[in-house]
TrEMBL record:
SMART domains: Alpha_adaptinC2
Domain GAE, chain residue ranges per copy: 713-828
One cellular component (GO) term of this entry: Golgi apparatus
Family to which the UniProt record says this protein belongs: Belongs to the adaptor complexes large subunit family.
Taxonomic superkingdom: Eukaryota
Any single GO BP term: vesicle-mediated transport
Name of the molecule in the record: AP-1 complex subunit gamma
Length: 833
């Protein structure tokens, strides 16, 4: 045997080995696999054979093996070991090898792998190849996976092919140029001269790709956008020829000439005409022709009409053209195809703000879409319906939307309820309608409403003074029917606690009054406390309502028993609430009527949420007895806004006014301990009501000292009020730690022969001041000047402005209630300087 024996042996052995199976046979074999494991075993066996063939540098079957590898890659199996074999095929002189090699490169390679850079020279050579099909392969590969480095190196060859007369290469070069621009935007100007001539091409493929290239350049560069606006007449002419041309079998799709090119031109016109009057004017006529002459019986025509509508809405088109576009969308709503209806609803939702009246014409069709079985269409129809609500149609639209709320799936209820609340708040024709609508939502979908719906409704009810009797009666009936909707139960409990006396009086003019007794009302509220359906928050509302009824009903003993029972509740918050209310009954019963007075009208300052209320002449934390009330601050005094009105309403700062103990208190210390730590150097902060839990009356118990050290200020006293035998003297002191705080002590004396009982002193100051009114020494002013009632006021005046004050005096004299308002402007200069 010669020296070449081993090589000869291997070559002969290779000749005797069977040829690898063809791709078609591999596909047929894999499809016979009954299980995933069996298929995996076949793939692994074939991959092993392909690896062996690659190692042996078998050029004969490399193309076949790479083709099979690409099929396995499409099935999801790893095929990365064939990347270098693809490069070898690309370098081959055979077209069949190049075709599989370039296909493999596009599937197996990307710019994240350095291997792709080895292709650059091969692609450059093939771009200059004498055969157009090889050039086409190179253009396709570069346009598919070329990196920024490859695009920079090969952009010159692409630009040359863009200028060639061969339409086959020009359309591929245009698409490749799009990829180059995306990767390297600064090369955009290189393609500008060649791009100008592309629109004069008759070949539709070149026209299509040139429009794509123009669109890409306009979207990426404002300068290019301005430059290409002069091509609008040419684009309009091309589009007009497409519409007016007769039947062309080469480009016809369902009776329409080249709809793909039409859609592309419409998109480019939309970009060119946006925010430009001249361009928009030039394309108005052709858009009207497309909108009126396009066949709508097939989806092809609908696609063109949809692009036409989008173009009309984006450019500065005429009003008549915009109405035509909206009417096209209205016809889409009647189409049997769900996708077309969805597209129409989405488009109308985008245009409803700018063309509201035109969209309103299709309101009935839009409302009918609420009954569609498709959830996506129902959601879009619901959103569009809320966008169409205005003051003229609010009653009819709300009727339809409430019907939808009754029957819709749970996933829609939260959004629908929120939409109804907002629309009712904005367009309600009357307060009764507003209250009825919100109550209807709470009855239907109470478990799905937003957290702020309860305080918002409470505020609405509070501000609708003339509707109190009607509202509390409606809510009481709702409680008798259903207690499962917790937000409704919470609002009903609050209203019964506030307006229970109106419920008993039967003075409801809006509807036939119902006859109920105190025991029946208390039975309902006690039932809420014991119900398993009630949440802890709802129980807090119910217990607070029962407590408030102790000043409106005569069944005080029964209420005391109920409150005392829950003093040992396992719910800590309910227990704390009951303990606090027990303390009111036992230790502070004289304060209970003032603390549990009816809420005044609330001043709303937020659009969609709990409102801030200006506090006047109220207790330090009177809102504590209102379970989860919407206002962060409440005031129990009757006609509490009077003092606000005296000083112009908005020019008044919060005032904290305390109630009167029956026995003298050490500078108001008892009430301070009861109501928490009050800041004595500034205004009492408005207690924020948490969204999840109602506030407590005795939160923040404190034993801090009532006053800082007080030094005599040498300020002369003054007479603030002297009328009907009642005299109010002011004496002044200055607090040591803060010289800006003036401490005013009032001395009330009575020169008549009869004592003055139930004496209450209230005060208000402008916004630039901060005032704190502490508890009085007594609520009885003795007759014949045999004693006096003292009360301390602390006023913070940081700007050293002249002090002004309005006071309100309320008392009972000889069995008759007396109320008087007065202004105090003659404060000594030493008190405020």
């Amino acid at each position: 045997m010669s020296v070449d024996g081993p090589s000869y042996f291997l070559a002969s052995l290779r000749r005797r080995m069977p040829a690898p199976i063809r791709l078609r046979e591999l596909i047929r074999t894999i499809r016979t696999a009954r299980t995933q494991a069996e298929e995996r075993e076949m793939i692994q066996k074939e991959c092993a054979a392909i690896r062996s063939s690659f190692r042996e540098e078998d050029n004969t079957y490399r193309c076949r093996n790479v083709a099979k590898l690409l099929y396995m890659h499409m099935l999801g199996y790893p095929a990365h070991f064939g990347q270098l074999e693809c490069l070898k095929l690309i370098a081959s002189q055979k077209f069949t090898d190049k075709r599989i090699g370039y296909l493999g490169a596009m599937l197996l390679l990307d710019e994240r792998q350095d291997v792709h850079l080895l292709m650059t020279n091969c692609i450059k050579n093939d771009l200059n190849h004498s055969t157009q099909y090889v050039q086409g392969l190179a253009l396709c590969t570069l346009g598919c996976m070329g990196s920024s480095e490859m695009c920079r190196d090969l952009a010159g060859e692409v630009e040359k092919l863009l200028k060639t007369s061969n339409s086959y290469l020009r359309k591929k070069a245009a698409l490749c140029a799009v990829h180059v621009i995306r990767k390297v935007p600064e090369l955009m100007e290189m393609f500008l001269p060649a791009t100008k001539n592309l629109l004069s091409e008759k070949n539709h493929g070149v026209l299509h790709t040139s429009v794509v290239l123009l669109t890409e350049m306009c979207e990426r560069s404002p300068d290019m956008l301005a430059h290409f606006r002069k091509l609008v007449p040419q684009l309009v002419r091309i589009l007009k020829n497409l519409i007016m041309s007769g039947y062309s079998p080469e480009h016809d799709v369902s009776g329409i000439s080249d709809p793909f090119l039409q859609v592309r031109i419409l998109r480019l016109l939309r970009i060119l005409g946006k925010s430009d009057d001249d361009s928009s004017e030039a394309m108005n006529d052709i858009l009207a022709q497309v909108a009126t002459n396009t066949e709508t019986s097939k989806n092809v025509g609908n696609a063109i009409l949809y692009e036409t509508v989008l173009t009309i809405m984006d450019i500065k088109s005429e009003s008549g053209l915009r109405v035509l576009a909206i009417n096209i969308l209205g016809r889409f709503l009647l189409n049997n195809d769900k996708n077309i209806r969805y597209v129409a609803l989405t488009s109308l939702l985008k245009t409803v703000q700018t063309d509201h009246n035109a969209v309103q014409r299709h309101r009935s069709t839009i409302v009918d879409c609420l009954k569609d079985l498709d959830v996506s269409i129902k959601r879009r129809a619901m959103e569009l319906s809320f966008a169409l609500v205005n003051g003229n149609n609010v009653r009819g639209m709300m009727k339809e939307l409430l019907y939808f709320l009754d029957s819709c799936d749970p996933e829609f209820k939260a959004d629908c309820a929120s939409g109804v609340f907002l629309a009712a708040e904005k367009y309600a024709p009357s307060k009764r309608w507003h209250i009825d609508t919100v109550m209807r939502v709470l009855t239907t979908a109470g478990s799905y409403v937003r957290d702020d719906s309860v305080p918002n409704l409470i505020q609405l009810i509070t501000n609708s003074v003339e509707m109190h009797a009607y509202t509390v009666q409606r809510l009481y009936k709702a409680l008798l029917d259903d207690i499962s909707q917790q937000p409704l139960v919470q609002v009903a409990s609050w209203c019964i606690g506030e307006y229970g006396d109106l419920l008993l009086s039967g003075q409801c003019e809006e509807e036939e009054p119902i006859q109920v007794t105190e025991d029946e009302v208390l039975d309902v509220l006690e039932g809420l406390l014991a119900s398993n359906l009630s949440t802890p928050v709802t129980r807090g509302y119910s217990l607070t309502a029962i407590m408030k009824l102790s000043t409106r009903f005569s069944s005080v003993n029964r209420i005391k028993k109920v409150v005392s029972v829950y003093g040992s509740s396992i719910d800590v918050e309910l227990q704390q609430r009951a303990v606090e209310y027990n303390a009111l009954f036992k230790k502070y019963d004289h304060m209970r009527p003032a603390l549990l007075e009816r809420m005044p009208i609330m001043e709303k300052t937020a659009t969609n949420g709990p409102s801030e209320i200006v506090q006047t002449n109220g207790e330090a934390e009177p809102s504590a007895v209102e379970a989860k009330h919407p206002p962060p601050v409440a005031q129990p005094a009757n006609q509490a806004n009077d003092l606000l009105d005296l000083l112009g309403g908005n020019d008044v700062v919060p005032v904290i006014q305390t109630s009167m103990p029956t026995k003298p208190a050490s500078a108001g210390g008892e009430l301070l301990d009861l109501l928490g730590d009050l800041s004595l150097s500034g205004p009492a902060p408005a207690p924020s009501v948490p969204s999840s839990q109602p506030p407590f009356l005795l939160d923040g118990l404190s034993s801090q000292p009532l006053f800082n050290d007080i030094a005599p200020a040498g300020i002369p006293p003054m007479i603030a009020y002297n009328k009907n035998g009642l005299k109010i003297d002011f004496t002044f002191e200055r607090a040591n730690p803060n010289p800006n705080v003036a401490v005013i002590t009032i001395h009330a004396t009575n020169s008549t022969e009869s004592e003055m009982t139930e004496f209450v002193f209230q005060a208000a100051v402008p916004k630039t001041f901060q005032l704190q009114l502490l508890s009085p020494s007594s609520n009885v002013v003795p007759a014949l000047n045999q004693g006096s009632v003292t009360q301390v006021i602390r006023v913070l005046n940081p700007q050293k402005q002249q002090l002004r004050m309005r006071i309100k005096l309320t008392y009972t004299h000889k069995g008759s209630p007396v109320q008087d308002l007065s202004e105090v402007n003659n404060f000594p200069p030493q008190s405020w300087q």
